[in-house]
Amino acid sequence: MNWFKKLFSKEVTEPAFNIHHPDLADKVEIAFETGGKKFYRFVDQYQMPVGRYKWVYATLREVDLRMDLETLKSYVSDLKKSLNGEKKQVDLGLAWKTIFNIETRLSLAFEPQGVKKLASIVYFTDTEILSTWNTEEGNEKIKFWDEHKCLDFFLTRPIGEYTRLSDSSITSLETYLSQVYPILEELKPEVPTP
Fold it and tell me: What is the reported pLDDT for 110?
């Protein structure tokens, strides 16, 4: 009986929800190209599918804080440890160090890894499903950009607007990145600050 149903039924397969989907085809444009790959963006961010925009919204919060959720949790853990010490004493040194590290992070222009994560959501390939975002695919894009020393996404709309870098040059961006990575290394919760 199943073969009979198959014979007379028309199976309709939905096209993949990527840039080739009829609902999205006129809403995307090329953002930049690197390593022989083209990366696209939405012409207007408000046209981004809700499932993907949820990831943008969550990641924007991390970009604003200049730290991811795990780093923030580590700082909170250090503060708790300083207030509820192993010897039942308050460790003001650790508390002030943690507060200093948080304040220093907040004063940075931006934290590169957070911006790269945001870029991996905002910029996409032609085959990427756009109704959501996949962490593994995002990490692969970041790895690809790092391998090809691509900094274009830092200066391209909308990331350039989010980070207020759209008027910057590649040279000043490279200078900032060379200075910020050692600072971030020193600010890690498990590394004591001199």
Answer: 93
Q: Which residues pair with 39 in a beta bridge?
A: 32
Q: Reply yes or no: is the peptide bond before residue 49 cis, omega within 30 of 0.
A: no
Q: How far apart are CA 161 and CA 167, in angstroms?
A: 9
Domain boundaries, the chain: 15-66+108-186
The per-residue pLDDT for range 1-25, each reduced to its tens digit, is 555 555 555 554 567 888 888 888 8
Q: Which two tokens stand for residue 87?
A: 């010897």
The token duo for 168 is: 């910057």
- For residues 94 and 80, give the distance between their C-alpha atoms in angstroms, rounded to a whole number: 10
Phi, psi of 45 (to 5 degrees): -60, -30
Among residues 98, 110, 99, 104, the alpha carbon closest in space to that of 191 is found at 98
Q: Tell whether the model's pLDDT for residue 191 goes beyond 50.
A: no
| pTM (2 d.p.) | 0.84
